Amino acid sequence: MNVLVTGGAGYIGSHAVKYLQEKAGHQVVVVDNLSRGHRRAVKGEAILIVHELADWKHVARVMTNNQIECVMHFAAKAYVGESVERPLDYYSNNTADAVALLRAMDQAGVRKFVFSSTCATYGEPSDEHIPIGETCPQRPISPYGRSKLFVEQILRDYAASCGDFQYAMLRYFNVAGSDPNGEIGEDHDPETHLIPIILQAAAGLRPHIEIFGTDYATPDGTCVRDYVHVEDLIDAHMVAMEALTTDHPLVYNLGIGKGYSVREIIESARRVTGKAITIKEGPRRPGDPPRLFANPAKIKSDLGWQAKHTDIDDIVRTAWTWIQNHPHGYNGE
Ligand SMILES: NC(=O)c1ccc[n+]([C@@H]2O[C@H](COP(=O)([O-])OP(=O)(O)OC[C@H]3O[C@@H](n4cnc5c(N)ncnc54)[C@H](O)[C@@H]3O)[C@@H](O)[C@H]2O)c1
With a 6 A CB cut-off, is 254 part of the ligand 1 pocket? Predict the structure, then answer.
């Protein structure tokens, strides 16, 4: 299939670009404005078009010229804190640009769409909704989460209006790890994700890591999250793409179904790297729920997907391989 990957120069999108080609022989075109991505992350024969999604007429021409059959939409801004400070950037980039992308698809006659949604659309679920299934009420607490939930609603309205649109909305939990051979990986500036931050501390690239809150009602007092390996996540996208149907949207939570605490991740990083990691204990951050992890049963029973990387050391090891090979990210290559 000819697949357009938006955000294919970013962390998750670059893994999609690689695996769509290597694992399934798809032809890939990337549209990315490189605002947060890296040209060098786009591997294989994929064509990289550096452009804004907002320019939907151009994007429609890209789709037509390359006979695109399916769009995987990863492009977004994805920092919760930044979204609170600059909400208009998030509604413009994540919501309005998704509308522009749908316009381009409409114009070019592309009918298959896989959308990167997020567990942030659930906000802070109460205990009875954990592990989090797809029917958990969606009450996001940040502009980031809302910018994504709006796209889910827009997709439903658009699909209802045309009848032949096939789409998946995949709500990711914490995506982690990297391609096991260390060729591509996570390179954000600033980095806000726990595993790369801990590994940067292990590699001596930052002096310490700070734990935000040690008095939560969790076994060791630190927050518990569901870390899904990026390779598993992309496998789920490929399975979903093959299963798309006009009958109904495919809506799935993507996680491993269990959570690891911040302290457990630090212990894992110490085991995997053999390095000392200095920690500082700080206060809680607003809007950090104590426990968030998925119930991934629906995608397993419907499509047969389940995460293969469930051991945290295995996940951390792949991220460590990337950091060892690229301590300064793509710019250090
Ligand atoms: N990383 C996670 O743990 C996580 C969790 C849940 C959901 N998600 C979602 O997954 C997707 C990918 O996340 P990521 O961590 O790979 O982010 P990333 O920042 O590494 O990649 C995003 C890419 O999109 C590009 N981009 C952004 N806005 C664009 C625009 N308007 N036009 C063209 N290109 C644009 C950026 O340059 C970048 O290359 C995002 O939609 C994010 O919301 C990520």
Answer: no
* 211 and 234, same domain (yes or no): no
Instruction: Return the CATH number at 170.
Output: 3.40.50.720
Q: Looking at the structure, do residues 80 and 160 belong to the same domain, yes or no? A: yes
Instruction: Decide if 40 is inside a domain.
Output: yes
Task: Per residue of the chain (333 residues), give pLDDT as tens.
Answer: 999 999 999 999 999 999 999 999 999 999 999 999 999 999 999 999 999 999 999 999 999 999 999 999 999 999 999 999 999 999 999 999 999 999 999 999 999 999 999 999 999 999 999 999 999 999 999 999 999 999 999 999 999 999 999 999 999 999 999 999 999 999 999 999 999 999 999 999 999 999 999 999 999 999 999 999 999 999 999 999 999 999 999 999 999 999 999 999 999 999 999 999 999 999 998 888 999 999 999 999 999 999 999 999 999 999 999 999 999 999 886
- Ligand 1 probe mutation, 36, 92, 234, most atoms within 8 A of CB: 36
Q: Is 52 in the pocket of ligand 1 (CB under 6 A)?
A: yes
Count how many domains the chain has. 2
pTM (global) more than 0.85: yes
Q: Is 97 in the pocket of ligand 1 (CB under 6 A)?
A: yes
Q: How far away, in angstroms, is 201 Cα from ligand 1 center?
A: 24
**Residue 183 resides in a domain:** no
Residue 198: domain span: 194-225+257-332
144 catalytic residue (yes or no): yes
Looking at the fold, whether 289 and 155 belong to one and the same domain comes out as: no
Choose which residue among 5, 6, 12, 39 to substitute to test ligand 1 binding: the one with the highest number of ligand atoms within 8 A of its C-beta: 12
Catalytic option among 19, 144, 167, 252:
144
Q: How far apart are CA 321 and CA 317, in angstroms?
A: 6
- Check whether residue 65 and residue 88 sit in a common domain: yes
